Amino acid sequence: MTAPGLPSGGGCRTAPVIKERGQREVFCGLTGIVWLHRKMQDAFFLVVGSRTCAHLLQAAAGVMIFAEPRFGTAILEEGDLAGMADAHEELDREVAKLLSRRPDIRQLFLVGSCPSEVIKIDLSKAAERLSQRFAPRVRVLNYSGSGIETTFTEGEDACLASMVPVLPRTEARELLVVGALPDVVEDQMVGLLEAMGIGPIRLLPARRIDDETAVGPNTVFALAQPFLGETHAALLRRGARHLAAPFPFGEEGTTAWLAAIAREFGVDAETFERVTAAPRARARKAVAAAARTLSGKTVFFLPDSQLEIPLARFLARECGMTPVEVASPYIHDAIHGPDLDLLPAGPRIAEGQDVDLQLDRVRADRPDLTVCGLGLANPLEAEGLSTKWAIELVFTPVHFYEQAGDLAALFARPLRRKALLKLEAAE
Which of 145, 142, 155 shows the shortest CA–CA distance to 225? Predict the structure, then answer.
């Protein structure tokens, strides 16, 4: 097993980084609840916020009125915002009503929002108080999903980081895979690792609180998502060790990610080849179909999902695209370094956002494809630029071998659509 070779022109790990701290265009961290509540089957996410927060979540999740989802909003009314009511008393009352009605809830997350942070409701104290009241049946934790300071994928990071301090301690040598994945993708990943003889495999987040996820000095962890900086730091504080690797997007990234784990657990090259050969071949074939559309095209990543760096690596090395700028809300060397090593030299690398300056560069570069948030896509489309919604890359299964073709197709689709529209216009 060998790591992917460096591109001939060198990588981007030591490239200068444009630091921008201006106006941002991103969703808030509450959006992460949409995929987290599906993943953790005995958890409930209670947003302490306004009606706007409730409308955002309902719109993002597409919840029918007859459904009973595992998230909700404790609405802050005018009296709460004006300091005329005791928000803690009201919160305790709402939590008690919720838990009496929903005995299936074993984990309750109090999620901070812009309104609750502006009026400085101390949700950490509320979580501690409610944990004591409802333990051991329910574990109550808190984190912030406020859009004041967070991008939308940071909601998951904050949620998982809040769980790390309360994970049981273990002395066992175990692999912990960190980051929420769709169940079907998670099952594929676990199947590949178990076929190599690696186990036990623990998951964060686990599907249920009773799953045996623990952490200790002999835990090694691999991140499945590139936006988990706070969770990474929290696990290091618990004594776990990080296995740095490119992220499992595309055939090359998935192979490198699996290879890092296989080396750690002493899997021989023959076993690794036997387990991965067939899915690798399928992934290469599926990616090649979309790469015919993508090859030779330019791509510009505006900072949004924190997936930008590994996706740029995938598009450059497996699909033949040329990134002209790769911007990400945050760049963490310990997390993103392996992908930056493999990203061919050439693109501008930017951290943070000053949206006006970045849009000026988009207009100057006129890339074939711009990956950006929903709020910027329509204006750029009106200017004749093809776009891809960054949020779609988070909500769609895109990790590991069997999804590699789907990932490439997400980028190819807007280019194909534009070509068809031009053809129809010419006729």
Answer: 155
CATH of domain 174-264: 3.40.50.1980
Transcribe 176-203 into DSSP letters: EEES---HHHHHHHHHHHHHTT---EEE
Tell whether 114 is in a known binding site.
yes
Q: At what angle do helices 183-195 and 269-294 cross, to 10 degrees?
A: 140
**Residue 372 labelled as part of a binding site:** no
Q: Using the structure block, give the residue that is written with the tokens 């696990």.
A: 235
Quick: pLDDT tens for 80-103. Answer: 554 545 678 888 988 999 999 999
29-150 and 174-264 share one fold? yes
Q: Are 312 and 299 in contact (CB under 8 A)?
A: yes
- Count CB neighbours of 377 within 10 A: 21
Q: Look at residue 236 in the predicted model and tell me its pLDDT.
A: 98
CATH classification number, 17-25+281-426, choose in 3.40.50.150, 3.10.310.70, 3.40.50.1980, 1.10.1760.20: 3.40.50.1980
CA distance 26 to 375: 8
241 or 91, greater pLDDT: 241
42 close to 375: Cβ distance less than 8 angstroms: no
Indicate the pTM of the whole model. Answer: 0.92
3 state DSSP class of 371: strand
